[in-house]
Structure formats: structure tokens, C-alpha cells
User: Which sequence fits this backbone?
């Protein structure tokens, strides 16, 4: 019995130790620190340029939207002023017609009484 148990343990041990183990291999990379700094600076500059471009496009879009909104408001105000001016002119013409009719009636009344 002991021999069988010893055989099983030996077989199991060989199978278990034969499995690949996840080992982290540490390799020392001899990079020049100046090249690393230059690469990081290049990436930083490219990211800053991309952010600036996106921010610039956003500002241009906001400026365009604001300009369009102001132009729409100005057009609405012009339309309101035009309508108000037409109403005032119509009222003035109406009063002028009433004045002319009144003056003509007065002349007729004065000519009949003379």
C-alpha cells in the first residue's frame, strides 16, 4: 500500500511540476533617458495640440452659434419695427382721411350757410 501511495505521489508530483508556471521575466532595458524624455515630450506636445485643436473648434462653433442667434434676434426686431411702422403709417393715413373728410364737410356746411 505504501508503494502504491508513493508511486501515485511521484506521478502526481511530476505532472504538477511539468505544468508551465507564469513567471515574470524582468528584462533590464537600457534606454537612454534623453530619448525617453524626448518621446514623452513629443507625446505630450501632440496631445496638447489635439486638445487645443478640439477646444479651438468648439470655440469657433460657439462663436458661430452666438453670431447666428444675434442675427436672428436682429431680424426679429427689424420685423417687429417694420410691422409697428406700418401700423403707425396706416393709423396716420386713416386720421388724414378723417381730417380731409371733416374739412370737406365743414366747407360744405359753410358754403350752404352763406
Assistant:
Amino acid at each position: 500500500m505504501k508503494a502504491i501511495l508513493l508511486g501515485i505521489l511521484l506521478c502526481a508530483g511530476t505532472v504538477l511540476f511539468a505544468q508551465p508556471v507564469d513567471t515574470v521575466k524582468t528584462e533590464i532595458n537600457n534606454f537612454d533617458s534623453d530619448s525617453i524624455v524626448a518621446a514623452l515630450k513629443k507625446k505630450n506636445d501632440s496631445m496638447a495640440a489635439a486638445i487645443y485643436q478640439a477646444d479651438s473648434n468648439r470655440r469657433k462653433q460657439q462663436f458661430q452659434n452666438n453670431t447666428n442667434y444675434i442675427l436672428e434676434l436682429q431680424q426679429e426686431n427689424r420685423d417687429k419695427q417694420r410691422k409697428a411702422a406700418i401700423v403707425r403709417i396706416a393709423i396716420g393715413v386713416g386720421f388724414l382721411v378723417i381730417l380731409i373728410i371733416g374739412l370737406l364737410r365743414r366747407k360744405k356746411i359753410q358754403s350752404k350757410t352763406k
User: Anything to note?
Assistant: The chain has two helices and no strands.
